[in-house]
From TrEMBL:
Pathway info: Amino-acid biosynthesis; L-methionine biosynthesis via de novo pathway; L-homoserine from L-aspartate: step 3/3; Amino-acid biosynthesis; L-threonine biosynthesis; L-threonine from L-aspartate: step 3/5
Pfam family name, one: Homoserine_dh
Source species of the chain: Microthlaspi erraticum
Keywords: Amino-acid biosynthesis, Methionine biosynthesis, NADP, Oxidoreductase, Threonine biosynthesis
Keyword Oxidoreductase part of the UniProt annotation: yes
Protein name: Homoserine dehydrogenase
Domain of life: Eukaryota
EC id: 1.1.1.3
Binding of L-homoserine, residues: 226
Alphabetized GO MF terms: homoserine dehydrogenase activity
Annotated Gene3D superfamilies: Dihydrodipicolinate Reductase, domain 2 (3.30.360.10), NAD(P)-binding Rossmann-like Domain (3.40.50.720)
């Protein structure tokens, strides 16, 4: 049986689903000859590890308890009061140092998959050191990959040991498909995508003639948006995904060089207007302009999509008119879509479409990434 030791950072919606999937897939993985050995779980304040990370693991009952405690909104440090023994709780002050030590010890011996399911910029130091000491790195977190080029190079130092399928289109095989195209020497000319479920939903509702303000309020009520819908409307999250794809294509660019169209003006930004004020009084002022754009597009046989376009050295993120009868134009609701144009996929692009968000699908993508590393472990 191949053993893949895993250290999980982040125990939110995605991290917890990952732990649940790991536990429920035990017999499947056993049939495949693989065992995932969870040797650490951390949240923003503490890390839980077995007494001996080289020999022991956190068992399934323990992992299920981790999920229950985090679902209740309690921190992992709650465990220190449970006095069950068999594990250690590392507190905030030692968190980074201890995590780094574990990655060094295991990276050099049996290998270790460090899995980032946090939404933090702060894991990057740990990840870079882990990559350097021979660990594999699996990410659902986009932020480390969208930092400086210097950081990026350190993270992808050993490309075969880095997986980040879930950073773009959640579980959809976007990165895997691109890697296959790239390694076959088929040059990618351009990529056109709709990479935000929220903005996909908003744009297709606008197409039906509804006002932006009403659509965004409804999306928030349905739980489709971030707590502050401007986090979706700013386009920043789409820009991060676009940057990840562009860098995969070898483009040496940073966030600053991406043209990002925000759906709200600066004066309605989070620092200047509360969420409630924005939703009640701000956003209605944007209705008319966008309605006119929708009508203009329609008169051209087009629809508006919030798209990312990667072509040559340029990466653009914003509203675009696309033909009604193109893959992007036919997209409805919150699905993500990516159209890849290359020499082999010239007239008819390679199209990848499906649910591009959700804790369950995202965690499934992360799990598949971990299993995909099995040949690197003894
Ligand atoms: N949900 C989706 O549909 C989806 C799709 C694609 C990608 N993603 C990405 O997946 C990641 C996780 O998403 P989520 O929805 O699960 O986020 P979340 O619910 O906000 O959970 C984040 C978790 O990370 C922990 N954390 C924060 N800083 C940390 C640190 N320095 N070290 C270790 N853990 C830390 C948090 O700890 P506390 O519990 O202490 O706050 C929390 O448990 C994000 O980067 C997100 O962009 C999500
Ligand atoms: C994902 O998990 C978070 C945290 O538990 C939760 O608030 C959110 O509603 C979940 N999202 C979905 C789509 O289930």
């Amino acid at each position: 049986m191949k053993k893949i030791p895993v250290l999980l950072m982040g125990c939110g919606g995605v991290g917890r689903h990952l732990l649940q999937h790991i536990v429920s897939c035990r017999s499947l993985h056993a049939k495949m000859g693989v065992h995932i050995r969870v040797i650490g779980v951390s949240d923003s304040k503490s890390l839980l590890v077995p007494m001996d990370v080289l020999k022991e693991e956190l068992n399934d009952e323990f992992l299920s308890q981790v999920c229950r405690i985090k679902s209740n909104g309690s921190p992992l440090s709650t465990f220190s009061a449970l006095e069950k023994g068999g594990f250690r709780v590392v507190g905030e002050s030692e968190l980074r140092k201890e995590t780094e030590e574990i990655t060094q010890i295991l990276g050099k011996s049996t290998g270790l998959a460090v899995v980032d399911c946090s939404a933090s910029m702060e894991t990057i130091e740990i990840l870079m050191k882990a990559a350097e000491s021979g660990c594999c790195v699996v990410l659902a977190n986009k932020k480390p990959l969208t930092s400086t080029l210097e950081h990026y190079d350190k993270l992808v130092l050993h490309p075969r040991r880095v997986r980040h399928e879930s950073t773009v289109g959640a579980g959809l095989p976007v990165i895997a498909s691109m890697n296959r195209i790239i390694s076959s020497g088929d040059p990618v000319h351009s990529i056109l995508g709709s990479l935000s479920g929220t903005l996909g939903y908003v744009m297709s509702e606008l197409e039906d003639g509804k006002p932006l303000s009403q659509v965004v309020r409804a999306a928030k009520t349905l739980g489709y948006t971030e707590p502050d819908p401007r986090d979706d409307l700013s386009g920043m999250d789409v820009a991060r995904k676009a940057l990840i794809l562009a860098r995969l294509l070898g483009k040496r660019i940073t966030m600053e060089s991406i043209e990002i169209e925000s759906l709200y003006p600066e004066e309605m930004g989070p620092g200047l207007m509360s969420v409630d004020d924005f939703l009640q009084n701000g956003i209605v002022k944007l209705d008319q302009n966008i309605e006119e754009r929708v009508k203009k597009a329609s008169s051209n046989g087009c629809v508006l999509r919030y798209a990312c376009v990667i072509e040559g050295s340029s990466v653009q993120v914003g509203i675009r008119e696309v033909p009604k009868d193109s893959p992007l134009g036919r997209l409805r609701g919150s699905d993500n879509i990516v159209e890849i144009y290359s020499r082999c996929y010239k007239e008819q692009p390679l199209v990848i479409q499906g649910a591009g968000a959700g804790n369950d699908t995202t965690a499934a993508g992360v799990l598949a990434d971990i299993i995909d590393l099995q040949d690197l472990f003894p």
